[in-house]
Specification:
By secondary structure, the protein is mainly α. The protein has 15 helices and four strands. It starts with a strand and ends in a 10-residue tail after the last helix. Bound molecules: zinc ion.
Length: about 475
Amino acid sequence: MPQSSIAARLPGNPPAAATAPAVEAPGGATPNAPALTSGQQSRPGLDLGSAPGAASVHLAPTAPGGGALNPAPAALAFSASEAPAGAALSSTPTQGRDIKGLPSLALKPSLPAIPAEPTKPAAPPTAPKPENFAQRAPEVRQEVLKKTGGSPETERAVAAALDWFKAHQSPDGRWSGQHFEDKCDCTAPAEIEADAAMTGITLLCYLGAGHTHLSEGPHRDGVKKALTWIVNRTDSSGDLRGGGGGGRDRGETMYSQTIAAVALCEAYAMTRDPWLEAPARRAVTFVARASTRGNTSASDTSVLGWQIMAIKSAQRAGFDVPTTAFDAARRWLDQTSSRNNPGRYAYAPGESPSPAATAEAMFVQQLLGHTRDEPRMRQSAEFILTTPPAWRREAATHYWYYATLALFQQQGDHWKTWNDSIARELLKNQHKDGHAKGSWDPQDPWSRLGGRVYQTAVCTLSLEVYYRYRLAEPQPKQ
Ligand SMILES: [Zn+2]
Protein backbone atom coordinates (compact mmCIF):
# COMPACT_ATOMS: atom_id res chain seq x y z
CA MET A 1 0.00 0.00 0.00
CA PRO A 2 1.62 3.25 -0.99
CA GLN A 3 2.19 5.49 1.90
CA SER A 4 3.51 8.96 2.27
CA SER A 5 4.55 10.37 5.54
CA ILE A 6 6.46 13.11 7.12
CA ALA A 7 7.74 12.69 10.59
CA ALA A 8 10.41 14.22 12.71
CA ARG A 9 11.56 12.30 15.69
CA LEU A 10 14.44 12.50 18.02
CA PRO A 11 16.41 9.69 19.58
CA GLY A 12 14.94 8.68 22.86
CA ASN A 13 11.50 9.67 21.79
CA PRO A 14 10.56 6.97 19.31
CA PRO A 15 7.21 7.22 17.65
CA ALA A 16 4.53 4.82 18.61
CA ALA A 17 3.33 2.48 15.95
CA ALA A 18 -0.31 3.13 15.51
CA THR A 19 -2.82 1.98 13.07
CA ALA A 20 -6.46 2.67 12.67
CA PRO A 21 -8.93 0.75 10.63
CA ALA A 22 -9.85 2.24 7.32
CA VAL A 23 -13.43 3.30 7.67
CA GLU A 24 -15.58 4.11 4.75
CA ALA A 25 -16.82 7.63 4.97
CA PRO A 26 -20.55 7.95 5.29
CA GLY A 27 -22.59 9.85 2.81
CA GLY A 28 -22.30 10.14 -0.92
CA ALA A 29 -19.40 8.68 -2.76
CA THR A 30 -16.83 10.33 -4.89
CA PRO A 31 -15.63 7.65 -7.25
CA ASN A 32 -12.00 6.70 -6.89
CA ALA A 33 -11.34 9.15 -4.09
CA PRO A 34 -8.81 7.80 -1.64
CA ALA A 35 -9.62 6.96 1.91
CA LEU A 36 -6.99 7.75 4.46
CA THR A 37 -5.83 5.99 7.52
CA SER A 38 -3.81 7.27 10.35
CA GLY A 39 -0.15 6.80 9.90
CA GLN A 40 2.09 3.95 10.72
CA GLN A 41 5.24 5.39 12.15
CA SER A 42 7.52 2.81 13.58
CA ARG A 43 11.11 3.87 13.49
CA PRO A 44 13.12 6.57 15.08
CA GLY A 45 14.76 9.32 13.13
CA LEU A 46 13.19 11.35 10.41
CA ASP A 47 11.01 9.17 8.29
CA LEU A 48 10.44 10.94 5.05
CA GLY A 49 9.03 8.15 3.03
CA SER A 50 7.32 9.66 0.04
CA ALA A 51 5.31 8.48 -2.85
CA PRO A 52 6.60 5.50 -4.79
CA GLY A 53 9.44 6.48 -7.01
CA ALA A 54 10.19 9.60 -5.09
CA ALA A 55 13.41 9.99 -3.23
CA SER A 56 13.17 9.19 0.43
CA VAL A 57 15.39 10.22 3.25
CA HIS A 58 15.93 8.68 6.62
CA LEU A 59 17.71 10.84 9.07
CA ALA A 60 18.28 10.63 12.76
CA PRO A 61 18.93 14.14 13.92
CA THR A 62 20.73 14.83 17.10
CA ALA A 63 20.74 17.82 19.29
CA PRO A 64 23.24 20.58 18.68
CA GLY A 65 26.49 19.30 20.05
CA GLY A 66 25.41 15.75 19.64
CA GLY A 67 23.62 15.43 22.93
CA ALA A 68 20.07 14.47 23.46
CA LEU A 69 17.70 17.36 23.61
CA ASN A 70 15.93 17.65 26.89
CA PRO A 71 13.13 18.05 26.44
CA ALA A 72 12.82 16.78 22.92
CA PRO A 73 11.63 19.35 20.42
CA ALA A 74 8.15 18.86 19.26
CA ALA A 75 7.70 16.19 16.70
CA LEU A 76 5.23 16.45 13.95
CA ALA A 77 3.98 13.52 12.07
CA PHE A 78 1.22 13.19 9.61
CA SER A 79 0.87 10.43 7.19
CA ALA A 80 -1.60 9.11 4.72
CA SER A 81 -2.17 5.75 3.25
CA GLU A 82 -4.29 5.10 0.29
CA ALA A 83 -7.19 2.74 0.38
CA PRO A 84 -8.45 0.86 -2.62
CA ALA A 85 -10.16 2.94 -5.21
CA GLY A 86 -13.83 3.37 -4.62
CA ALA A 87 -13.66 4.24 -0.95
CA ALA A 88 -15.95 7.12 -0.37
CA LEU A 89 -15.09 10.66 0.48
CA SER A 90 -18.00 12.99 0.51
CA SER A 91 -18.81 16.47 1.62
CA THR A 92 -22.15 15.52 3.13
CA PRO A 93 -22.68 17.87 6.06
CA THR A 94 -22.81 16.34 9.49
CA GLN A 95 -25.40 18.08 11.59
CA GLY A 96 -25.98 18.44 15.26
CA ARG A 97 -22.66 17.50 16.77
CA ASP A 98 -22.39 18.27 20.44
CA ILE A 99 -19.10 20.09 20.60
CA LYS A 100 -18.07 20.82 24.13
CA GLY A 101 -17.15 24.39 24.73
CA LEU A 102 -18.06 25.79 21.37
CA PRO A 103 -20.33 28.81 21.38
CA SER A 104 -23.97 28.06 20.85
CA LEU A 105 -24.51 30.28 17.87
CA ALA A 106 -26.45 29.63 14.75
CA LEU A 107 -24.89 29.88 11.32
CA LYS A 108 -27.69 32.09 10.03
CA PRO A 109 -29.23 35.27 11.39
CA SER A 110 -32.24 34.90 13.66
CA LEU A 111 -35.62 34.79 12.02
CA PRO A 112 -38.32 37.35 12.84
CA ALA A 113 -40.28 36.51 15.98
CA ILE A 114 -43.44 35.67 14.07
CA PRO A 115 -42.52 34.34 10.67
CA ALA A 116 -45.09 34.77 7.95
CA GLU A 117 -44.92 31.13 7.08
CA PRO A 118 -43.18 28.01 8.28
CA THR A 119 -39.49 28.18 7.68
CA LYS A 120 -36.64 25.80 7.81
CA PRO A 121 -35.47 24.98 11.33
CA ALA A 122 -32.59 27.04 12.56
CA ALA A 123 -29.11 25.62 12.44
CA PRO A 124 -28.27 23.31 15.34
CA PRO A 125 -27.60 25.23 18.55
CA THR A 126 -24.02 23.98 18.76
CA ALA A 127 -23.05 25.29 15.33
CA PRO A 128 -20.18 27.75 15.69
CA LYS A 129 -20.36 31.26 14.41
CA PRO A 130 -18.37 31.97 11.27
CA GLU A 131 -15.29 33.98 12.07
CA ASN A 132 -14.22 37.04 10.10
CA PHE A 133 -10.84 37.62 11.79
CA ALA A 134 -11.59 41.33 12.02
CA GLN A 135 -8.92 41.76 14.69
CA ARG A 136 -6.22 41.05 12.10
CA ALA A 137 -6.87 44.18 10.07
CA PRO A 138 -3.87 46.51 10.30
CA GLU A 139 -6.05 49.47 11.21
CA VAL A 140 -7.59 47.56 14.12
CA ARG A 141 -4.82 45.54 15.57
CA GLN A 142 -2.69 48.30 17.06
CA GLU A 143 -5.15 48.47 19.90
CA VAL A 144 -5.16 44.68 20.23
CA LEU A 145 -1.36 44.60 20.24
CA LYS A 146 -1.10 46.92 23.19
CA LYS A 147 -3.43 44.80 25.27
CA THR A 148 -1.94 41.44 24.45
CA GLY A 149 1.79 42.05 24.66
CA GLY A 150 2.89 42.93 21.14
CA SER A 151 5.05 45.93 20.28
CA PRO A 152 6.22 48.07 17.37
CA GLU A 153 9.28 45.84 17.26
CA THR A 154 7.29 42.64 16.83
CA GLU A 155 5.27 44.33 14.10
CA ARG A 156 8.40 45.45 12.28
CA ALA A 157 9.71 41.90 12.47
CA VAL A 158 6.50 40.54 10.96
CA ALA A 159 6.64 43.14 8.18
CA ALA A 160 10.26 42.27 7.41
CA ALA A 161 9.42 38.58 7.24
CA LEU A 162 6.55 39.21 4.84
CA ASP A 163 8.91 41.23 2.65
CA TRP A 164 11.40 38.37 2.67
CA PHE A 165 8.68 35.95 1.58
CA LYS A 166 7.66 38.34 -1.17
CA ALA A 167 11.18 38.42 -2.56
CA HIS A 168 11.39 34.64 -2.55
CA GLN A 169 8.04 33.64 -4.06
CA SER A 170 8.24 31.49 -7.18
CA PRO A 171 6.89 32.99 -10.43
CA ASP A 172 4.03 30.47 -10.44
CA GLY A 173 2.83 31.63 -7.03
CA ARG A 174 4.14 28.93 -4.73
CA TRP A 175 6.75 29.16 -2.04
CA SER A 176 9.25 26.44 -2.68
CA GLY A 177 11.12 25.15 0.33
CA GLN A 178 13.93 23.93 -1.87
CA HIS A 179 14.29 26.49 -4.64
CA PHE A 180 13.54 29.86 -3.07
CA GLU A 181 17.21 30.81 -3.16
CA ASP A 182 17.91 30.03 -6.80
CA LYS A 183 18.61 33.65 -7.58
CA CYS A 184 20.16 34.85 -4.32
CA ASP A 185 22.59 33.86 -1.64
CA CYS A 186 20.10 33.01 1.08
CA THR A 187 20.97 29.61 2.49
CA ALA A 188 19.15 26.66 4.03
CA PRO A 189 16.84 25.08 1.49
CA ALA A 190 14.44 22.45 2.79
CA GLU A 191 15.51 18.83 2.96
CA ILE A 192 12.12 17.74 1.67
CA GLU A 193 9.89 18.82 -1.16
CA ALA A 194 6.60 20.01 0.28
CA ASP A 195 5.62 23.09 -1.66
CA ALA A 196 1.91 22.90 -0.77
CA ALA A 197 2.86 22.90 2.91
CA MET A 198 5.33 25.76 2.40
CA THR A 199 2.85 27.76 0.36
CA GLY A 200 0.09 27.07 2.87
CA ILE A 201 2.07 28.06 5.93
CA THR A 202 3.43 31.18 4.23
CA LEU A 203 -0.08 32.17 3.23
CA LEU A 204 -1.07 31.79 6.88
CA CYS A 205 1.59 34.39 7.74
CA TYR A 206 0.06 36.89 5.29
CA LEU A 207 -3.50 36.12 6.35
CA GLY A 208 -2.52 36.32 10.01
CA ALA A 209 -1.32 39.87 9.42
CA GLY A 210 -4.53 40.81 7.61
CA HIS A 211 -3.23 40.56 4.04
CA THR A 212 -5.64 38.91 1.62
CA HIS A 213 -5.98 38.80 -2.16
CA LEU A 214 -8.70 41.43 -1.88
CA SER A 215 -7.10 43.85 0.58
CA GLU A 216 -5.14 46.88 -0.48
CA GLY A 217 -1.42 46.78 0.05
CA PRO A 218 1.90 45.48 -1.19
CA HIS A 219 1.07 41.80 -0.70
CA ARG A 220 -2.24 41.51 -2.51
CA ASP A 221 -0.83 40.12 -5.76
CA GLY A 222 1.48 37.67 -4.03
CA VAL A 223 -1.34 36.31 -1.90
CA LYS A 224 -3.56 35.98 -4.95
CA LYS A 225 -0.92 34.10 -6.89
CA ALA A 226 -0.33 31.74 -4.02
CA LEU A 227 -4.03 31.06 -3.51
CA THR A 228 -4.41 30.48 -7.23
CA TRP A 229 -1.59 27.96 -7.14
CA ILE A 230 -3.27 26.00 -4.35
CA VAL A 231 -6.76 26.24 -5.85
CA ASN A 232 -5.49 24.94 -9.18
CA ARG A 233 -3.92 22.02 -7.35
CA THR A 234 -7.13 21.02 -5.58
CA ASP A 235 -9.00 18.25 -7.36
CA SER A 236 -12.73 17.49 -7.15
CA SER A 237 -12.26 15.40 -4.02
CA GLY A 238 -10.38 18.19 -2.26
CA ASP A 239 -7.02 16.48 -2.56
CA LEU A 240 -4.33 19.11 -3.12
CA ARG A 241 -1.24 16.99 -2.54
CA GLY A 242 -0.56 16.77 -6.24
CA GLY A 243 1.26 13.92 -7.82
CA GLY A 244 -1.10 12.86 -10.55
CA GLY A 245 -4.63 13.89 -9.68
CA GLY A 246 -6.12 10.63 -8.50
CA GLY A 247 -3.39 8.20 -9.43
CA ARG A 248 -1.47 6.14 -6.93
CA ASP A 249 1.38 8.63 -6.78
CA ARG A 250 -0.14 11.09 -4.36
CA GLY A 251 2.73 13.54 -4.22
CA GLU A 252 2.88 15.38 -0.93
CA THR A 253 1.63 14.23 2.46
CA MET A 254 -1.42 14.88 4.58
CA TYR A 255 0.71 17.38 6.46
CA SER A 256 0.74 19.49 3.30
CA GLN A 257 -2.94 18.85 2.71
CA THR A 258 -3.85 20.00 6.19
CA ILE A 259 -1.81 23.21 6.25
CA ALA A 260 -2.96 24.29 2.81
CA ALA A 261 -6.57 23.51 3.73
CA VAL A 262 -6.28 25.73 6.79
CA ALA A 263 -4.94 28.51 4.57
CA LEU A 264 -7.82 28.16 2.11
CA CYS A 265 -10.37 28.18 4.94
CA GLU A 266 -8.86 31.27 6.53
CA ALA A 267 -8.66 33.11 3.22
CA TYR A 268 -12.30 32.29 2.56
CA ALA A 269 -13.35 33.24 6.09
CA MET A 270 -11.62 36.60 5.79
CA THR A 271 -12.95 37.50 2.34
CA ARG A 272 -16.06 35.37 1.69
CA ASP A 273 -14.86 35.31 -1.90
CA PRO A 274 -17.05 32.74 -3.71
CA TRP A 275 -13.99 31.75 -5.77
CA LEU A 276 -12.52 30.11 -2.69
CA GLU A 277 -15.59 28.52 -1.17
CA ALA A 278 -15.69 25.21 -3.02
CA PRO A 279 -11.94 24.53 -2.96
CA ALA A 280 -11.71 25.41 0.73
CA ARG A 281 -14.70 23.28 1.63
CA ARG A 282 -13.44 20.33 -0.38
CA ALA A 283 -9.88 20.54 0.89
CA VAL A 284 -10.83 20.66 4.55
CA THR A 285 -13.51 18.00 4.19
CA PHE A 286 -10.80 15.77 2.78
CA VAL A 287 -8.81 16.39 5.98
CA ALA A 288 -11.81 15.90 8.25
CA ARG A 289 -12.70 12.61 6.62
CA ALA A 290 -9.14 11.43 6.97
CA SER A 291 -9.13 12.44 10.63
CA THR A 292 -12.21 10.39 11.39
CA ARG A 293 -10.26 7.27 10.52
CA GLY A 294 -8.49 7.68 13.81
CA ASN A 295 -11.59 6.84 15.80
CA THR A 296 -9.84 4.68 18.30
CA SER A 297 -6.69 6.73 18.75
CA ALA A 298 -4.50 9.30 17.16
CA SER A 299 -1.11 8.09 16.03
CA ASP A 300 0.79 10.75 17.90
CA THR A 301 -0.01 13.82 19.98
CA SER A 302 1.89 15.86 17.45
CA VAL A 303 -0.58 14.90 14.75
CA LEU A 304 -3.40 16.49 16.59
CA GLY A 305 -2.42 20.14 16.40
CA TRP A 306 -2.88 20.65 12.69
CA GLN A 307 -5.69 18.09 12.38
CA ILE A 308 -7.89 19.72 14.97
CA MET A 309 -6.89 23.16 13.78
CA ALA A 310 -8.06 22.29 10.27
CA ILE A 311 -11.48 21.28 11.52
CA LYS A 312 -11.70 24.41 13.63
CA SER A 313 -10.70 26.51 10.64
CA ALA A 314 -13.55 24.93 8.68
CA GLN A 315 -15.94 25.89 11.45
CA ARG A 316 -14.50 29.40 11.52
CA ALA A 317 -15.25 29.57 7.81
CA GLY A 318 -18.82 28.43 8.49
CA PHE A 319 -18.41 24.99 6.94
CA ASP A 320 -20.15 22.03 8.47
CA VAL A 321 -17.57 19.25 8.53
CA PRO A 322 -17.35 15.98 10.45
CA THR A 323 -16.06 16.53 13.96
CA THR A 324 -15.61 12.96 15.08
CA ALA A 325 -11.89 13.71 15.24
CA PHE A 326 -12.64 15.87 18.28
CA ASP A 327 -13.82 12.81 20.20
CA ALA A 328 -10.77 10.85 19.13
CA ALA A 329 -8.58 13.76 20.22
CA ARG A 330 -10.15 13.85 23.67
CA ARG A 331 -9.55 10.17 24.16
CA TRP A 332 -5.99 10.45 22.96
CA LEU A 333 -5.21 13.34 25.27
CA ASP A 334 -6.58 11.38 28.21
CA GLN A 335 -4.38 8.44 27.28
CA THR A 336 -1.22 10.52 26.98
CA SER A 337 -1.63 12.69 30.06
CA SER A 338 0.32 11.89 33.17
CA ARG A 339 -1.64 10.00 35.81
CA ASN A 340 -0.26 11.98 38.70
CA ASN A 341 -0.18 15.30 36.92
CA PRO A 342 -2.80 15.32 34.17
CA GLY A 343 -1.65 18.66 32.76
CA ARG A 344 1.56 16.99 31.54
CA TYR A 345 1.43 15.11 28.27
CA ALA A 346 3.57 12.69 26.30
CA TYR A 347 3.64 12.10 22.57
CA ALA A 348 2.29 8.60 23.02
CA PRO A 349 0.92 6.49 25.87
CA GLY A 350 3.65 5.14 28.07
CA GLU A 351 6.21 7.76 27.08
CA SER A 352 7.50 10.39 29.48
CA PRO A 353 5.69 13.72 29.40
CA SER A 354 7.55 16.60 27.78
CA PRO A 355 6.98 20.36 27.62
CA ALA A 356 6.84 20.10 23.81
CA ALA A 357 4.09 17.46 23.78
CA THR A 358 2.36 19.39 26.54
CA ALA A 359 2.35 22.60 24.48
CA GLU A 360 0.62 20.87 21.60
CA ALA A 361 -1.80 19.08 23.88
CA MET A 362 -2.65 22.30 25.71
CA PHE A 363 -3.33 24.03 22.39
CA VAL A 364 -5.59 21.19 21.28
CA GLN A 365 -7.41 21.24 24.63
CA GLN A 366 -8.13 24.90 24.05
CA LEU A 367 -9.48 24.20 20.56
CA LEU A 368 -11.70 21.58 22.15
CA GLY A 369 -13.14 24.22 24.44
CA HIS A 370 -11.22 23.82 27.68
CA THR A 371 -10.73 27.05 29.59
CA ARG A 372 -7.84 28.67 31.34
CA ASP A 373 -9.23 28.30 34.85
CA GLU A 374 -9.13 24.51 34.77
CA PRO A 375 -6.38 23.08 37.02
CA ARG A 376 -5.16 20.89 34.19
CA MET A 377 -4.49 23.92 32.01
CA ARG A 378 -2.54 25.64 34.74
CA GLN A 379 -0.47 22.50 35.24
CA SER A 380 0.33 22.50 31.53
CA ALA A 381 1.36 26.15 31.58
CA GLU A 382 3.66 25.61 34.55
CA PHE A 383 5.27 22.58 32.94
CA ILE A 384 5.91 24.46 29.69
CA LEU A 385 7.50 27.31 31.57
CA THR A 386 10.13 24.95 32.96
CA THR A 387 11.64 25.09 29.45
CA PRO A 388 11.56 28.68 28.22
CA PRO A 389 12.74 29.65 24.74
CA ALA A 390 16.51 29.92 24.31
CA TRP A 391 17.57 30.07 20.67
CA ARG A 392 21.28 29.42 21.02
CA ARG A 393 21.14 26.77 23.67
CA GLU A 394 18.26 24.68 22.48
CA ALA A 395 16.16 26.06 19.67
CA ALA A 396 12.87 24.27 19.20
CA THR A 397 10.73 26.70 17.29
CA HIS A 398 7.99 24.22 16.51
CA TYR A 399 7.53 23.66 20.26
CA TRP A 400 7.70 27.41 20.84
CA TYR A 401 5.02 28.02 18.24
CA TYR A 402 2.53 25.79 20.03
CA ALA A 403 3.57 27.04 23.45
CA THR A 404 3.05 30.60 22.24
CA LEU A 405 -0.44 29.83 20.93
CA ALA A 406 -1.39 27.95 24.09
CA LEU A 407 0.05 30.37 26.65
CA PHE A 408 -1.42 33.35 24.80
CA GLN A 409 -4.84 31.83 25.39
CA GLN A 410 -3.90 31.07 28.99
CA GLN A 411 -2.93 34.73 29.58
CA GLY A 412 -1.98 35.94 33.06
CA ASP A 413 1.54 35.66 34.45
CA HIS A 414 2.21 32.52 32.45
CA TRP A 415 1.74 34.44 29.22
CA LYS A 416 3.69 37.50 30.36
CA THR A 417 6.68 35.38 31.31
CA TRP A 418 6.63 33.36 28.09
CA ASN A 419 5.95 36.34 25.86
CA ASP A 420 8.94 38.27 27.20
CA SER A 421 11.21 35.35 26.32
CA ILE A 422 9.79 34.38 22.96
CA ALA A 423 9.63 37.93 21.65
CA ARG A 424 13.18 38.60 22.78
CA GLU A 425 14.58 35.40 21.25
CA LEU A 426 12.79 35.80 17.92
CA LEU A 427 13.61 39.48 17.53
CA LYS A 428 17.24 38.92 18.40
CA ASN A 429 17.76 36.11 15.92
CA GLN A 430 15.97 37.47 12.87
CA HIS A 431 18.28 38.55 10.06
CA LYS A 432 18.59 42.33 10.02
CA ASP A 433 20.63 42.80 6.83
CA GLY A 434 21.33 41.42 3.40
CA HIS A 435 19.08 39.34 1.20
CA ALA A 436 18.12 37.15 4.17
CA LYS A 437 16.79 40.19 6.04
CA GLY A 438 13.51 39.29 7.70
CA SER A 439 14.16 35.53 7.75
CA TRP A 440 15.46 33.17 10.41
CA ASP A 441 18.15 30.51 10.09
CA PRO A 442 16.84 26.99 10.66
CA GLN A 443 18.28 25.98 13.99
CA ASP A 444 16.77 22.74 15.19
CA PRO A 445 16.37 19.38 13.40
CA TRP A 446 12.77 19.86 12.41
CA SER A 447 13.41 23.36 11.12
CA ARG A 448 16.39 22.21 9.06
CA LEU A 449 14.07 19.67 7.48
CA GLY A 450 11.68 22.43 6.46
CA GLY A 451 14.43 24.92 5.64
CA ARG A 452 14.43 28.70 5.74
CA VAL A 453 10.91 29.16 4.38
CA TYR A 454 9.41 26.91 7.03
CA GLN A 455 11.55 28.36 9.82
CA THR A 456 10.63 31.90 8.89
CA ALA A 457 6.95 31.03 8.72
CA VAL A 458 6.88 29.42 12.16
CA CYS A 459 8.68 32.38 13.72
CA THR A 460 6.40 34.86 11.93
CA LEU A 461 3.25 33.07 13.07
CA SER A 462 4.58 33.16 16.62
CA LEU A 463 5.01 36.94 16.37
CA GLU A 464 1.48 37.32 15.00
CA VAL A 465 -0.03 35.57 18.00
CA TYR A 466 -1.28 38.84 19.50
CA TYR A 467 -4.02 39.21 16.92
CA ARG A 468 -4.08 36.05 14.84
CA TYR A 469 -6.79 34.38 16.89
CA ARG A 470 -9.04 36.06 19.36
CA LEU A 471 -8.75 35.29 23.01
CA ALA A 472 -11.39 32.88 24.16
CA GLU A 473 -14.08 34.44 26.32
CA PRO A 474 -14.25 35.47 29.04
CA GLN A 475 -11.44 37.98 28.91
CA PRO A 476 -8.89 37.38 31.64
CA LYS A 477 -8.68 39.55 34.70
CA GLN A 478 -5.55 41.66 34.39
ZN1 LIG B 1 17.45 35.55 -0.75
